[in-house]
Amino acid sequence: MMKYEIFKDVVENAVLDYLPPEFQNSELHLQRVKKVNGMDYDGLVVRKEDTNVCPVINLTQLYEDYKLSEDIELVTKNAADIVLLAYDVAPENEYQDVLD
Q1: What are phi and psi of 67, to 5 degrees?
Q2: Which helix (H) or strand (E) holds 67?
Q3: Which pTM value belongs to this model?
């Protein structure tokens, strides 16, 4: 079983392989997410080109899933499925990106 730090890198580097062509130029980065309830987790941000809305995948939870199955391919595919679902249900945002 791979250690958590390696797991994060593997998922970050492989998730695009499981996404459709329109995601291939997406920006990916890891960030620590602090939730309002005081909990925090490592998140993988997948920002599709030409959008200012993006999902953050909870890698801490995905690692728990990985520990149960030890199937990195399945977990990475599930991460990609989460990205697709998040973009399907995300509302349109007509406002300028706050970071610009």
Answers
A1: -60, -30
A2: helix 59-69
A3: 0.81
DSSP states along 68-91: HH--HHHHHHHHHHHHHHHHHHPP
How far apart, in whole angstroms, are the C-alpha atoms of residue 83 and residue 64?
Answer: 18
Q: Which two tokens stand for residue 67?
A: 């520990």
Are 82 and 16 a contacting pair, CB within 8 Å?
Answer: no
Dig out the tokens for 68 from the structure: 């149960």
pLDDT tens, residue by residue, 13-57 = 999 999 999 999 999 999 998 888 888 999 999 998 887 778 899
Pair of tokens at residue 85: 């679902």
Place of tokens 């697709």: 84
Do 56 and 33 form a contact (C-beta atoms < 8 A)?
yes
- Three-state DSSP class for residue 5: helix
